[in-house]
Backbone:
């Protein structure tokens, strides 16, 4: 088990990590999700012991390891670049951490066999890393991390340099590999889609803060605040400021019925948001539709992304099928009202439970 | 602006022996790319898409064939004589210049009058939301801003024959990718310059291009609109490579208007012409697989909840098949699968065959 | 970024501290000690206060030696840096010829300094040295071409002509040390991604623009190092000119270090020489600092803009 207790990292004036507390169970997959410079790598370095936190403590299995250097911790790391020993065969690469740990030959053979099977590397054990494709090289790096049998495995955007389709395949394999191993896995990524495909638990990072840490799908469905919702949305979240008046949310170009779950909300200004796939084109304007002005459309063949503006905000509508309204035209979309996300003036999410507490 | 003609182009790298078709990094290509179109070259790494881009840009002279811009043979012209612009995978900026000078550079090198340069730079700065940074030194900017400058420099000249993009969004964060992609699309609409975009990312290729050129092992296996690639992949590889998850390819035997799949029979709506010895398969995208109470017995292996939809991985008569369910749908107990008729394609030896309806 | 957590590691630094103390701090302190006293041998010392420093600073001889030193250093910098960059630009980028060039370039750096001096000494002798004889003949030919009277005829003899001596001293330094600049600049050039050159071609950039906006900015860091190294080395140069000219003719090529040795060992003026050493050291240090700040200042300014 890995625990971070109000861990902070400051370098000079700049705060890289701001009071992060997380608990990660053995056998769990923990995704760190956030854009570049949000602190993913800094946080991983603190977890690994490559850096010492300015404040706070790091505990592993009930022992305070703050300040213990990385060599003395039981950690394996996989990086975005495919890092292998170029002069060693795949077998020797995978065996290297066990050789350093002075394991017996039979045990090494066994483990390499098991890990190589898991990662489908068995036909390549005698090859050198540079003779392999990128995907195979990265699988070798992963295999080495697994063979180390460390309690903590850190993966820093391990699939970012791979082809799209290879990424898709490895992503599908990874959760299976993780659950079989029993270590604490931490996986950094900038892509919301990747977090969703991996599952497990996700921590969203924003400017060095963990804004929320929860089961991945639950976090996606009910973000605690606007920053989290924005971070965890691809295509981007559609947001607009609206005023609640009685049973309606009103803004320029929009008057929506307040969903039942927000009935008891006080009147006043709020931020409401919809995910792109919760909006669909309506044939004509009617109650509870929103008029948007199209700026550009992107068509993937099965779906269309309609980029549009409303009240100065950029919105994206994700619609099945092929739709190509001309730029500048106005379209009407019907939102799934019960999927509406509502945030107060501070950006905190309003949910039925927060409403109950307030009442 | 120009029409690009690839006239019987083939290319083999010097190290490869000549003669056999398999030795070519680029197998015979014969295409006309219309003036003002947006084309994407899509394929896995090593498929030859970068080789083809280099042939167009002039970094590589093809072993055989000719390349024409608007009917004019440019096969042996170097890149600088081809009147093209290019944006690279990693940002290329002139560190010591300001953002505005970076954008102005290609124009000034060609002796464009100063007032013209100024107005054009202002336009591009505005399009890319860089106006506030115009006087900053490029050196001090983040990678994604630098890439924006590279994009801007690629688009600054109005008189180019084509703009080439070599995986330009690799270093960009997902959120900014959305923004830049739609800006690119808008720019293409405004400039109507021929654009060629190389990528391994299907979303980028499909959303950017009017025509997507799918490549595999040095060969163009399909050129089509995103819609065609989705609904009628000409090759099982196209079906697999485009869409996520890719198309289900299920080996079958064809008997008249029916496909036999283990103990099941699927109506394919018509007869097909294919040699008797051909390996036949049905291609059905997960989007066209419905799970309900009737149909083919579907054994569920795993359900991935990916937020906006659920991906169900399972098997029909031992063949792996995935299906996509809506966000709020649930997998029925004892599910049965049906294939929606418009989503069924038939393949003989990996190539799509027409169903005579 | 990476921090040391293990304070025991400091013990590993002790041997270095010891070495530095033995070969730098203690001798330097001894020199400072000498500079404040007067001695005539027999280990007898008399307190002299700042008298030695005053003597050095007001000495005409010191001023001219210092001036000579600066002229020499700036001349060789002005030749070696552009020349080194130019050679690096002209070298092949890859292939067997790149290696051949690199080996050829490295050769002068492998030759011991006094050998360089001796080599050029013989090479430039007006009667038997290849260079000296050639230049002398050339000068003779030009003289007869211009119909100069015999007493005004041009000759080349570095042992008794100031201009000739300077010419050989500078040529020798350029021959010996330009390679260092070449190697550094070449390494800097090699690190530039090919995409930059391709982009520049497509942008229609001229050869000069490529140099000015791509190659020079990317070579900046290594050129700073090259300038600093060449400054320090040439500012404290001793062996080569000493073997070549012995500081002559007269005092024409007596640079600071040669003058220092003359005062200390030739004239046994230890206190004066010690004071001169200290001043010499402080000047070197100050000019290095000046160079470094000037050259990295714009960097710092850029960082600040972020």
Residues:
């Amino acid at each position: 088990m890995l625990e971070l207790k109000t861990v902070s990292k400051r370098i000079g004036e700049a705060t890289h990590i701001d009071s992060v507390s997380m608990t990660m169970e053995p056998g769990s997959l923990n995704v760190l999700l956030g854009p570049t410079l949000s602190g993913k790598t800094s946080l991983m370095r603190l977890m690994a012991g490559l850096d010492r936190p300015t404040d706070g403590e790091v505990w592993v299995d009930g022992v305070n390891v703050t300040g213990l250097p990385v060599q003395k911790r039981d950690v394996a790391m996989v990086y975005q670049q495919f890092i292998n020993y170029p002069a060693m065969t795949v077998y020797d690469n995978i065996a290297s951490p066990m050789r350093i740990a002075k394991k017996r030959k039979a045990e090494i053979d066994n483990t390499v066999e098991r890990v190589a099977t898991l990662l489908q590397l068995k036909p390549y054990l005698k090859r050198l890393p540079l003779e392999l494709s990128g995907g195979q090289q990265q699988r070798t790096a992963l295999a080495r991390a697994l063979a180390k049998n460390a309690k903590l495995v850190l993966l820093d955007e391990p699939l970012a340099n791979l082809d799209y389709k290879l990424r898709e395949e490895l992503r599908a394999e990874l959760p299976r590999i993780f659950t079989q191993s029993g270590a604490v896995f931490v996986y950094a990524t900038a892509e919301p889609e990747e977090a969703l495909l991996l599952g497990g638990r996700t921590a969203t990072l924003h400017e060095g803060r963990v804004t929320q840490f929860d089961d991945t799908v639950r976090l996606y469905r009910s973000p605690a605040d606007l920053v989290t919702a924005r971070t965890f949305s691809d295509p981007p979240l559609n947001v607009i400021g609206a005023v609640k008046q009685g049973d309606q949310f009103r803004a320029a170009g929009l008057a929506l019925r307040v969903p039942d779950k927000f009935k008891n909300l006080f009147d006043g200004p709020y931020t409401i948001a919809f995910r792109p796939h919760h909006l669909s084109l309506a044939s004509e304007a009617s109650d509870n539709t929103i008029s948007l002005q199209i700026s550009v459309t992107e068509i993937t063949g099965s779906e269309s992304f309609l980029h549009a503006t409303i009240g100065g905000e950029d919105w994206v509508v994700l619609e099945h099928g092929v739709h190509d309204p001309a730029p500048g035209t106005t379209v009407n979309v019907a939102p799934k009202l019960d999927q509406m996300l509502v945030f107060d003036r501070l950006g905190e999410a309003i949910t039925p439970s927060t409403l109950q507490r307030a009442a | 602006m120009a029409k690009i003609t690839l006239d019987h182009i083939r290319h083999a790298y010097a190290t490869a022996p000549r003669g056999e078709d398999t030795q070519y990094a680029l197998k015979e290509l014969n295409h006309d790319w219309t003036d003002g179109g947006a084309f994407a070259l899509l394929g896995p790494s090593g498929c030859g898409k970068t080789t083809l881009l280099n042939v167009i840009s002039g970094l590589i002279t093809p072993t055989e064939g000719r390349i024409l811009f608007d009917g004019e043979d440019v096969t042996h012209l170097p890149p600088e004589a081809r009147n093209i612009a290019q944006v690279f995978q990693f940002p290329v900026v002139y560190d010591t210049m300001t953002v505005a000078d970076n954008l102005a550079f290609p124009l000034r090198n060609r002796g464009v009058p100063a007032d013209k340069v100024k107005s054009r730079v202002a336009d591009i700065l505005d399009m890319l939301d860089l106006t506030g940074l115009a006087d900053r030194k490029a050196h001090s900017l983040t990678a994604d801003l630098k890439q924006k400058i590279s994009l801007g420099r690629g688009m600054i000249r109005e008189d180019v024959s084509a703009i080439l993009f070599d995986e330009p969004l690799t270093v960009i964060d997902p959120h900014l990718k959305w923004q830049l992609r739609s800006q690119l699309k808008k720019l293409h609409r405004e400039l109507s310059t021929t654009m060629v975009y190389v990528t391994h990312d299907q979303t980028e290729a499909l959303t950017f291009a009017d025509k997507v050129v799918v490549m595999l092992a040095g060969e163009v296996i399909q050129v089509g609109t995103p819609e065609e690639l989705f609904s009628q992949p000409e090759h099982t590889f196209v079906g697999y490579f485009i869409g996520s998850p890719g198309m289900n390819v299920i080996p079958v035997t064809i008997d008249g208007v029916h496909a036999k799949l283990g103990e099941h029979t699927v109506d394919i709506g018509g007869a097909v012409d294919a040699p008797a010895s051909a390996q036949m398969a049905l291609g059905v995208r997960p989007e066209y697989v419905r799970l309900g109470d009737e149909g083919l017995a579907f054994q569920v292996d795993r359900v991935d909840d990916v937020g906006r939809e659920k991906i169900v991985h399972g098997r029909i008569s031992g063949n792996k098949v995935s299906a996509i369910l809506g966000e709020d749908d649930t997998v029925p107990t004892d599910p049965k699968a049906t294939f929606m008729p418009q989503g069924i394609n038939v393949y003989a030896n990996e190539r799509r065959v027409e169903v005579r309806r | 970024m990476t921090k040391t957590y293990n304070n025991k590691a400091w013990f590993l630094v002790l041997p270095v501290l010891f070495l530095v103390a033995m070969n730098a701090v203690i001798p330097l302190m001894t020199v400072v000690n000498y500079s404040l006293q007067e001695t005539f041998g027999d280990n007898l010392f008399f307190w002299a206060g700042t008298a030695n420093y005053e003597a050095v600073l007001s000495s005409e001889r010191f001023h001219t030696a210092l001036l000579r030193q600066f002229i020499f250093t700036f001349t060789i910098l002005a030749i070696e840096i552009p020349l080194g960059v130019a050679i690096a630009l002209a070298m092949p980028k890859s292939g067997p010829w790149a290696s051949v060039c690199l080996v050829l370039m490295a050769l002068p750096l492998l030759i011991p300094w006094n050998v360089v001096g001796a080599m050029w000494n013989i090479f430039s002798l007006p009667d038997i040295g290849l260079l000296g004889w050639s230049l002398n003949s050339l000068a003779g030919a030009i003289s007869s071409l211009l119909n100069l009277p015999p007493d005004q005829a041009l000759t080349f003899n570095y042992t008794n002509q100031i201009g000739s001596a300077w010419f050989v001293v500078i040529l020798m330094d350029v021959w010996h040390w330009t390679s260092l600049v070449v190697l550094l600049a070449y390494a800097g050039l090699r690190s530039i991604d090919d995409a930059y050159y391709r982009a520049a071609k497509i942008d229609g950039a001229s050869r000069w623009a490529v140099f000015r906006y791509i190659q020079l900015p990317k070579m900046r860091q290594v050129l700073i190092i090259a300038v600093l190294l060449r400054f320090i080395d040439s500012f404290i140069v001793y062996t080569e000119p000493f073997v070549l000219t012995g500081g002559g003719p007269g005092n024409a090529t007596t640079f600071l270090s040669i003058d220092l040795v003359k005062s200390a060992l030739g004239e046994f003026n230890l206190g004066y020489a010690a004071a001169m050493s200290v001043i010499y050291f402080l000047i070197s240090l100050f000019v290095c600092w000046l160079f470094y700040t000037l050259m990295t200042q714009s960097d710092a300014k850029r960082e600040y803009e972020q």
